[in-house]
UniProtKB/TrEMBL annotation:
Specifically dimethylates two adjacent adenosines (A1518 and A1519) in the loop of a conserved hairpin near the 3'-end of 16S rRNA in the 30S particle. May play a critical role in biogenesis of 30S subunits. It comes from Sulfurovum lithotrophicum. One of its GO terms (cellular component) is cytosol. PROSITE patterns: SAM_RNA_A_N6_MT. This is Ribosomal RNA small subunit methyltransferase A. Residues 266-285 are annotated as: Disordered. The keyword S-adenosyl-L-methionine applies. It comes from the Bacteria.
Length: 285
């Protein structure tokens, strides 16, 4: 396929910003975990990163854009023929609906489409076959995943990342390294997993805990859980009531969740009870 104008060819809908820098392609290859597991690449695009990956590993790539699938099928004819490269066309998120992305252990390596980058990383945390995630994302997203407790950027994503392993922001990549350039600075993020974790209730709990990041953690939790239970749990865990969400470490979030989770709807029940009481009062009962 001959592309006369890459910037015009790129589809915004599919988050296409092609990495056109040999230097950063090599930096990504060097940051990869040092073993011979298969690599799953999401969004191979024109195949620049894929070319480097197939030199070292067996690769399965997932691409949604039919134009690019055609291009990759002819570009990678030989590795497809000798079995070192497999291309699966379609939406990668749909592939994940039926379980693991691959039926063998793998490392995820990708220059991700930014509109679904966080979603993809969270899917990889849940996937038991995924051993690590090495991805190009918006710098802001990488910072959130890699932040440590106490840092201002420590967020629900940091808690989830440190629950499954260790997240490292490897390096930043300037906009000019891509065609077309994205609106934001990018960064390569590595998450080395030591376990998988799949608990949607915990994710919902973290959303509540970080709902107002600059407010007190206890106040955020009181929007969904009974006040007395939050106060009692803070006292038992010897946590200061003034603690802000970014100041509590990952293990504190797991402790708080274990104490509070069965009351996730307790606050709603309280509201319901108060409402019934005031209605009864109004009726003069
Ligand atoms: C940021 S580009 C990266 C392209 C190439 N890997 C590179 O580094 O130049 C993102 C790629 O993800 C693909 N993509 C977007 N949404 C996708 C989805 N839901 N499933 C699979 N691939 C997707 C795009 O078509 C595009 O090829």
């Amino acid at each position: 396929m001959i592309i006369e104008n890459l910037a015009e060819f790129a589809s915004k809908k599919f988050g296409q910003n092609f990495l056109k820098s040999d230097y950063y392609l090599q930096q990504i290859i060097q940051a990869m975990p040092n073993d011979c597991l298969r690599v799953a690449e999401i969004g191979p695009g024109l195949g620049d990163l894929t070319k480097e990956l197939v030199k070292a590993r067996n690769v399965t790539a997932f691409e949604v854009d039919k134009r690019l699938c055609e291009h990759l099928t002819s570009e990678f004819e030989e590795p497809i023929h000798n079995g070192s490269f497999e291309l699966r066309c379609g939406d990668v998120l749909e592939r994940w609906e039926s379980g693991s992305l691959l039926d063998e252990p793998y490392h995820l390596v990708a220059n991700l489409p930014y509109y679904i980058a966080t979603n993809i990383i969270l899917k990889a945390f849940k996937d038991e076959h995924c051993r690590s995630v090495l991805v190009m994302v918006q710098k802001e997203v990488a910072v959130k995943f890699a932040a440590e407790a106490g840092e201002k950027a420590f967020s629900a994503l940091s808690v989830l990342a440190s629950t499954v392993g260790k997240a490292t922001l490897c390096f930043e990549v300037e906009r000019e390294a891509f065609v077309p350039p994205p609106n934001v600075t990018s960064a390569v993020l590595l998450i080395e997993k030591n376990r998988s974790f799949d608990d949607e209730k915990f994710e919902a709990f973290l959303k509540i805990a970080f709902s107002q990041p600059r407010k007190k953690l206890s106040k955020n939790l009181m929007t969904a859980f009974p006040k007395d239970l939050v106060e009692k749990t803070f006292a038992e865990l010897e946590l200061p009531s003034t603690m802000r969400p970014h100041e509590a470490g990952t293990s504190i979030y797991h402790h708080l969740y274990n104490e509070l989770k069965d009351n996730l709807d307790g606050k709603q029940q309280n509201k319901q009870r108060k409402l019934s009481k005031s209605r009864a009062k109004n009726r003069g009962q």
